[in-house]
Protein backbone atom coordinates (compact mmCIF):
# COMPACT_ATOMS: atom_id res chain seq x y z
CA UNK A 1 0.00 0.00 0.00
CA UNK A 2 1.33 3.45 -0.85
CA UNK A 3 1.28 5.72 2.15
CA UNK A 4 -0.10 9.11 1.14
CA UNK A 5 1.69 12.05 2.66
CA UNK A 6 -0.61 14.54 4.30
CA UNK A 7 1.60 17.35 3.11
CA UNK A 8 1.67 16.39 -0.54
CA UNK A 9 2.12 19.77 -2.24
CA UNK A 10 -0.49 19.23 -4.94
CA UNK A 11 -3.39 19.18 -2.52
CA UNK A 12 -2.45 22.25 -0.47
CA UNK A 13 -4.33 25.41 -1.37
CA UNK A 14 -2.95 28.95 -1.06
CA UNK A 15 -5.05 31.55 0.71
CA UNK A 16 -5.00 34.88 2.54
CA UNK A 17 -6.16 35.01 6.16
CA UNK A 18 -9.00 37.55 6.16
CA UNK A 19 -10.21 37.13 9.76
CA UNK A 20 -8.97 35.34 12.85
CA UNK A 21 -10.69 34.75 16.14
CA UNK A 22 -11.55 32.15 18.75
CA UNK A 23 -8.85 29.89 17.38
CA UNK A 24 -10.21 29.94 13.83
CA UNK A 25 -8.49 31.43 10.81
CA UNK A 26 -10.60 32.29 7.80
CA UNK A 27 -8.52 31.76 4.67
CA UNK A 28 -9.77 33.13 1.35
CA UNK A 29 -8.54 31.34 -1.76
CA UNK A 30 -9.73 34.05 -4.17
CA UNK A 31 -13.16 32.48 -4.53
CA UNK A 32 -14.39 31.59 -1.09
CA UNK A 33 -13.53 31.48 2.59
CA UNK A 34 -12.38 28.37 4.43
CA UNK A 35 -12.70 28.06 8.19
CA UNK A 36 -9.33 26.74 9.25
CA UNK A 37 -7.59 25.53 12.37
CA UNK A 38 -3.85 25.56 12.71
CA UNK A 39 -1.87 22.35 12.37
CA UNK A 40 -0.74 21.42 15.88
CA UNK A 41 2.93 21.99 15.25
CA UNK A 42 2.33 25.77 15.11
CA UNK A 43 2.06 25.47 18.89
CA UNK A 44 5.71 24.52 19.14
CA UNK A 45 7.08 27.27 16.94
CA UNK A 46 6.69 30.92 17.76
CA UNK A 47 5.05 31.55 14.43
CA UNK A 48 1.86 33.52 14.85
CA UNK A 49 -0.63 33.50 12.03
CA UNK A 50 -2.35 36.85 11.58
CA UNK A 51 -4.79 38.61 9.31
CA UNK A 52 -3.16 39.37 5.97
CA UNK A 53 -0.89 36.34 6.12
CA UNK A 54 -0.48 34.15 3.08
CA UNK A 55 -0.88 30.52 4.07
CA UNK A 56 -1.17 27.06 2.59
CA UNK A 57 -3.98 24.96 3.92
CA UNK A 58 -5.35 21.48 3.45
CA UNK A 59 -8.97 21.78 2.42
CA UNK A 60 -11.36 19.40 4.13
CA UNK A 61 -15.07 18.90 3.90
CA UNK A 62 -17.84 21.50 4.19
CA UNK A 63 -15.51 24.47 3.92
CA UNK A 64 -13.26 23.47 6.83
CA UNK A 65 -9.51 23.26 6.48
CA UNK A 66 -6.21 23.04 8.31
CA UNK A 67 -3.41 25.59 7.88
CA UNK A 68 -0.15 23.78 7.24
CA UNK A 69 2.25 26.53 6.32
CA UNK A 70 2.80 30.23 6.87
CA UNK A 71 4.42 31.94 3.87
CA UNK A 72 6.95 34.78 4.24
CA UNK A 73 5.60 38.26 5.00
CA UNK A 74 6.36 41.38 3.00
CA UNK A 75 5.36 43.79 5.76
CA UNK A 76 4.15 43.60 9.32
CA UNK A 77 2.24 46.20 11.31
CA UNK A 78 2.15 45.46 15.02
CA UNK A 79 -0.76 47.73 15.92
CA UNK A 80 -3.28 47.11 14.56
CA UNK A 81 -1.86 43.65 13.84
CA UNK A 82 -1.94 42.97 10.12
CA UNK A 83 0.53 41.43 7.66
CA UNK A 84 1.44 42.23 4.07
CA UNK A 85 -0.27 45.59 3.69
CA UNK A 86 1.18 48.13 1.22
CA UNK A 87 -0.37 51.19 2.80
CA UNK A 88 -1.99 52.37 6.00
CA UNK A 89 -4.88 54.82 5.78
CA UNK A 90 -4.71 56.64 9.10
CA UNK A 91 -8.18 57.94 9.78
CA UNK A 92 -8.90 60.83 12.14
CA UNK A 93 -12.11 62.79 12.47
CA UNK A 94 -11.92 66.58 12.23
CA UNK A 95 -14.38 66.60 15.17
CA UNK A 96 -16.11 64.07 17.39
CA UNK A 97 -13.66 62.83 18.46
CA UNK A 98 -11.21 65.73 18.06
CA UNK A 99 -7.99 64.79 16.30
CA UNK A 100 -4.96 63.99 18.40
CA UNK A 101 -1.79 65.05 16.51
CA UNK A 102 0.49 63.23 18.96
CA UNK A 103 -1.24 59.95 18.18
CA UNK A 104 -1.34 60.64 14.46
CA UNK A 105 2.39 61.32 14.49
CA UNK A 106 3.09 58.02 16.22
CA UNK A 107 1.16 56.23 13.59
CA UNK A 108 3.05 57.92 10.78
CA UNK A 109 6.35 56.90 12.37
CA UNK A 110 5.14 53.32 12.96
CA UNK A 111 3.92 52.91 9.37
CA UNK A 112 7.11 54.29 7.81
CA UNK A 113 9.30 52.18 10.08
CA UNK A 114 7.42 49.09 8.85
CA UNK A 115 7.92 50.28 5.25
CA UNK A 116 4.21 50.84 4.84
CA UNK A 117 3.10 53.96 2.99
CA UNK A 118 0.90 56.16 5.18
CA UNK A 119 -2.10 58.06 3.84
CA UNK A 120 -3.84 60.44 6.22
CA UNK A 121 -7.63 60.57 5.97
CA UNK A 122 -9.44 63.41 7.74
CA UNK A 123 -13.07 62.28 7.97
CA UNK A 124 -16.30 63.95 9.13
CA UNK A 125 -15.45 67.10 7.23
CA UNK A 126 -19.20 67.80 7.14
CA UNK A 127 -18.83 68.76 10.81
CA UNK A 128 -16.60 71.74 10.03
CA UNK A 129 -18.31 75.00 9.10
CA UNK A 130 -16.50 75.77 5.88
CA UNK A 131 -15.19 72.34 4.96
CA UNK A 132 -11.70 73.52 5.95
CA UNK A 133 -9.45 71.31 7.98
CA UNK A 134 -6.92 73.33 9.96
CA UNK A 135 -4.55 70.46 10.52
CA UNK A 136 -4.12 69.74 6.86
CA UNK A 137 -1.40 72.30 6.16
CA UNK A 138 0.83 70.57 8.69
CA UNK A 139 0.72 67.33 6.75
CA UNK A 140 -0.08 67.98 3.12
CA UNK A 141 3.49 68.79 2.09
CA UNK A 142 4.89 65.62 3.56
CA UNK A 143 2.21 62.96 3.30
CA UNK A 144 -0.68 61.96 1.09
CA UNK A 145 -3.85 63.41 2.56
CA UNK A 146 -7.49 62.72 1.69
CA UNK A 147 -10.41 64.61 3.15
CA UNK A 148 -13.68 62.77 3.39
CA UNK A 149 -17.17 62.73 4.74
CA UNK A 150 -18.71 59.28 4.91
CA UNK A 151 -21.96 61.14 5.53
CA UNK A 152 -22.10 63.39 2.45
CA UNK A 153 -19.86 61.25 0.25
CA UNK A 154 -17.23 63.97 -0.13
CA UNK A 155 -13.81 62.62 -1.03
CA UNK A 156 -14.96 59.02 -1.29
CA UNK A 157 -13.88 58.77 -4.93
CA UNK A 158 -10.40 59.88 -3.91
CA UNK A 159 -10.30 57.32 -1.15
CA UNK A 160 -11.56 54.61 -3.50
CA UNK A 161 -8.82 55.48 -6.01
CA UNK A 162 -6.18 55.30 -3.30
CA UNK A 163 -7.30 51.82 -2.26
CA UNK A 164 -7.59 50.40 -5.75
CA UNK A 165 -5.44 47.33 -6.37
CA UNK A 166 -3.54 47.87 -3.12
CA UNK A 167 -3.59 46.03 0.18
CA UNK A 168 -4.48 48.63 2.79
CA UNK A 169 -5.38 48.90 6.42
CA UNK A 170 -7.68 51.54 7.92
CA UNK A 171 -6.40 52.50 11.34
CA UNK A 172 -7.17 55.19 13.88
CA UNK A 173 -9.05 55.97 17.08
CA UNK A 174 -12.47 54.56 17.87
CA UNK A 175 -15.40 56.53 16.50
CA UNK A 176 -13.59 58.35 13.67
CA UNK A 177 -15.65 56.52 11.04
CA UNK A 178 -13.37 53.79 9.68
CA UNK A 179 -16.17 51.26 9.34
CA UNK A 180 -18.66 53.87 8.12
CA UNK A 181 -16.22 54.79 5.34
CA UNK A 182 -15.97 51.16 4.25
CA UNK A 183 -19.74 50.74 4.32
CA UNK A 184 -20.04 53.89 2.17
CA UNK A 185 -17.45 52.61 -0.30
CA UNK A 186 -19.04 49.18 -0.52
CA UNK A 187 -22.80 49.37 -0.45
CA UNK A 188 -24.06 46.00 0.68
CA UNK A 189 -21.21 45.50 3.14
CA UNK A 190 -23.18 46.63 6.22
CA UNK A 191 -20.50 46.22 8.87
CA UNK A 192 -21.54 47.28 12.35
CA UNK A 193 -20.86 50.90 13.33
CA UNK A 194 -21.42 52.70 16.63
CA UNK A 195 -22.44 56.18 17.74
CA UNK A 196 -19.84 58.38 19.37
CA UNK A 197 -20.79 58.78 23.03
CA UNK A 198 -22.37 62.20 23.50
CA UNK A 199 -20.81 62.70 26.90
CA UNK A 200 -17.20 61.67 26.33
CA UNK A 201 -17.12 62.42 22.59
CA UNK A 202 -15.30 59.15 22.10
CA UNK A 203 -16.02 56.05 20.10
CA UNK A 204 -17.40 52.92 21.71
CA UNK A 205 -14.97 50.40 20.25
CA UNK A 206 -17.54 48.89 17.95
CA UNK A 207 -15.19 46.99 15.63
CA UNK A 208 -13.64 44.16 17.63
CA UNK A 209 -11.51 42.28 15.12
CA UNK A 210 -9.26 42.98 12.19
CA UNK A 211 -11.02 41.96 8.99
CA UNK A 212 -9.79 42.05 5.40
CA UNK A 213 -12.35 42.87 2.75
CA UNK A 214 -12.09 42.31 -1.00
CA UNK A 215 -12.68 45.46 -3.06
CA UNK A 216 -14.67 45.20 -6.31
CA UNK A 217 -12.09 47.41 -8.07
CA UNK A 218 -9.32 45.01 -7.01
CA UNK A 219 -7.33 45.12 -3.81
CA UNK A 220 -8.05 44.40 -0.18
CA UNK A 221 -8.71 46.66 2.76
CA UNK A 222 -8.66 45.83 6.46
CA UNK A 223 -11.06 47.34 8.97
CA UNK A 224 -9.57 47.38 12.46
CA UNK A 225 -10.57 48.19 16.04
CA UNK A 226 -9.85 51.76 17.14
CA UNK A 227 -7.33 52.59 19.86
CA UNK A 228 -6.46 55.54 22.03
CA UNK A 229 -2.71 55.26 22.48
CA UNK A 230 0.24 53.89 20.60
CA UNK A 231 3.82 53.15 21.63
CA UNK A 232 6.55 54.26 19.28
CA UNK A 233 8.02 51.31 17.36
CA UNK A 234 11.24 49.61 18.46
CA UNK A 235 13.68 51.90 16.69
CA UNK A 236 16.97 53.53 17.64
CA UNK A 237 16.88 57.28 18.41
CA UNK A 238 19.22 57.79 15.41
CA UNK A 239 16.60 56.34 13.08
CA UNK A 240 13.78 58.65 14.08
CA UNK A 241 14.68 61.62 11.85
CA UNK A 242 14.50 59.51 8.71
CA UNK A 243 10.88 58.66 9.60
CA UNK A 244 9.86 62.34 9.37
CA UNK A 245 9.92 62.98 5.59
CA UNK A 246 10.51 66.76 5.99
CA UNK A 247 13.41 66.19 8.39
CA UNK A 248 14.80 63.36 6.31
CA UNK A 249 15.10 65.76 3.36
CA UNK A 250 17.65 67.88 5.33
CA UNK A 251 19.76 65.18 6.91
CA UNK A 252 22.71 65.24 4.54
CA UNK A 253 23.62 68.78 5.64
CA UNK A 254 24.44 68.01 9.29
CA UNK A 255 28.10 68.35 10.29
CA UNK A 256 28.19 65.42 12.70
CA UNK A 257 27.55 61.91 11.59
CA UNK A 258 24.92 60.46 13.91
CA UNK A 259 23.53 63.95 14.65
CA UNK A 260 20.31 63.70 16.65
CA UNK A 261 19.36 67.29 15.65
CA UNK A 262 18.96 68.31 19.24
CA UNK A 263 22.00 69.90 20.88
CA UNK A 264 24.58 69.39 18.17
CA UNK A 265 26.13 72.43 16.47
CA UNK A 266 26.09 72.87 12.68
CA UNK A 267 22.85 70.95 12.41
CA UNK A 268 21.04 71.34 9.10
CA UNK A 269 17.73 70.33 10.66
CA UNK A 270 17.84 73.09 13.28
CA UNK A 271 18.82 75.57 10.56
CA UNK A 272 15.85 74.43 8.48
CA UNK A 273 13.55 74.99 11.47
CA UNK A 274 14.96 78.51 11.93
CA UNK A 275 14.51 79.39 8.28
CA UNK A 276 10.96 78.03 8.34
CA UNK A 277 11.68 75.20 5.90
CA UNK A 278 10.68 72.69 8.58
CA UNK A 279 7.61 73.67 10.59
CA UNK A 280 8.31 74.19 14.27
CA UNK A 281 5.34 72.07 15.27
CA UNK A 282 6.84 69.14 13.37
CA UNK A 283 10.28 69.61 14.91
CA UNK A 284 8.74 69.78 18.39
CA UNK A 285 6.98 66.49 17.77
CA UNK A 286 10.28 65.02 16.64
CA UNK A 287 11.93 66.19 19.89
CA UNK A 288 9.10 64.75 21.97
CA UNK A 289 9.42 61.32 20.38
CA UNK A 290 13.22 61.51 20.52
CA UNK A 291 13.08 62.05 24.28
CA UNK A 292 10.81 59.05 24.58
CA UNK A 293 13.19 56.81 22.64
CA UNK A 294 16.18 58.03 24.65
CA UNK A 295 14.31 57.33 27.89
CA UNK A 296 13.67 53.80 26.76
CA UNK A 297 17.37 53.27 26.34
CA UNK A 298 18.02 54.03 29.97
CA UNK A 299 16.21 50.97 31.20
N1 LIG B 1 -21.08 63.50 10.75
C1 LIG B 1 -20.40 62.42 10.39
N2 LIG B 1 -20.51 61.30 11.14
C2 LIG B 1 -19.80 60.21 10.75
C3 LIG B 1 -18.99 60.21 9.59
N3 LIG B 1 -18.40 59.01 9.48
C4 LIG B 1 -18.83 58.28 10.52
N4 LIG B 1 -19.67 59.00 11.29
C5 LIG B 1 -20.34 58.55 12.53
O1 LIG B 1 -19.35 58.32 13.52
C6 LIG B 1 -19.76 57.23 14.38
C7 LIG B 1 -18.65 56.21 14.50
O2 LIG B 1 -18.46 55.56 13.26
P1 LIG B 1 -17.76 54.14 13.11
O3 LIG B 1 -17.67 53.88 11.66
O4 LIG B 1 -18.41 53.11 13.96
O5 LIG B 1 -16.31 54.46 13.71
P2 LIG B 1 -15.03 53.49 13.74
O6 LIG B 1 -13.85 54.34 13.43
O7 LIG B 1 -15.25 52.30 12.90
O8 LIG B 1 -14.97 53.11 15.30
P3 LIG B 1 -14.46 51.72 16.01
O9 LIG B 1 -15.00 50.57 15.26
O10 LIG B 1 -14.98 51.83 17.39
O11 LIG B 1 -12.96 51.80 15.98
C8 LIG B 1 -21.04 56.68 13.78
O12 LIG B 1 -22.13 57.24 14.49
C9 LIG B 1 -21.03 57.21 12.35
O13 LIG B 1 -22.33 57.41 11.82
C10 LIG B 1 -18.93 61.42 8.81
O14 LIG B 1 -18.25 61.53 7.80
N5 LIG B 1 -19.67 62.48 9.27
MG1 LIG C 1 -15.31 50.30 13.30
ZN1 LIG D 1 21.35 67.52 12.72
Order of helices and strands: EEEEEEEEHEHEHEHEEHHH
| Major sheet strand order | 10-9-8-11-13-12
Gyration radius (Cα, Å) is 22 Å
Assembly context of the chains: single chain
Mean pLDDT: 93
What is the overall number of helices?
7
* Morphology: globular
CATH class of the largest domain: Alpha Beta
Largest sheet: 6 strands, mixed
At CATH level 3, the topology of the largest domain is Rossmann fold
% residues in beta strands: 15-25%
Number of domains: 3
Ligands in the model, by name, code or SMILES, are:
guanosine-5'-triphosphate, magnesium ion, zinc ion
CATH architecture verdict of the largest domain: 3-Layer(aba) Sandwich
State the low-pLDDT regions, or none: 1-5
The helical percent reads: 10-25%
- In whole angstroms, how far apart are the ends? 62 Å
Find the CATH superfamily of the largest domain. Answer: P-loop containing nucleotide triphosphate hydrolases
How many strand elements? 13
- The SS-based structural class is alpha/beta
Question: Can you offer a commentary on this structure?
Answer:
By secondary structure, the chain is of the alpha/beta class. The protein folds into three domains: 10-70, Nucleic acid-binding proteins (OB fold (Dihydrolipoamide Acetyltransferase, E2P)); 76-223, P-loop containing nucleotide triphosphate hydrolases (Rossmann fold, 3-Layer(aba) Sandwich); 237-297, Ribonucleotide Reductase Protein R1, domain 1 (Orthogonal Bundle). It has seven helices and 13 strands. It has helices spanning 101-113, 136-140, 156-163, 178-185, 245-248, 268-274, 280-297; strands spanning 13-21, 24-28, 33-38, 54-59, 64-70, 76-77, 82-83, 87-93, 117-123, 144-147, 167-171, 211-214, 220-223. Zinc ion binds next to helix 6. Guanosine-5'-triphosphate (GTP) is lined by residues 123-124, 126-127, 149-151, 174-180, 193-196, 203-207, 225-226.
Amino acid sequence: MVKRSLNSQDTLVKGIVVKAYSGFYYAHDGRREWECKLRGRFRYTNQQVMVGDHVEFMPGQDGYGVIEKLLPRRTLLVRPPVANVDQAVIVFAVREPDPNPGLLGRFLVAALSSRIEPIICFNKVDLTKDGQVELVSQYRENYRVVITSAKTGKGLDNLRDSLKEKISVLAGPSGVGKTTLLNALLPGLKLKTGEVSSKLKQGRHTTRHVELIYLPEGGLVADTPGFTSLELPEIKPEELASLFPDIKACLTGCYFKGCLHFKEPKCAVKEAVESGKIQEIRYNQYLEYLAELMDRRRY
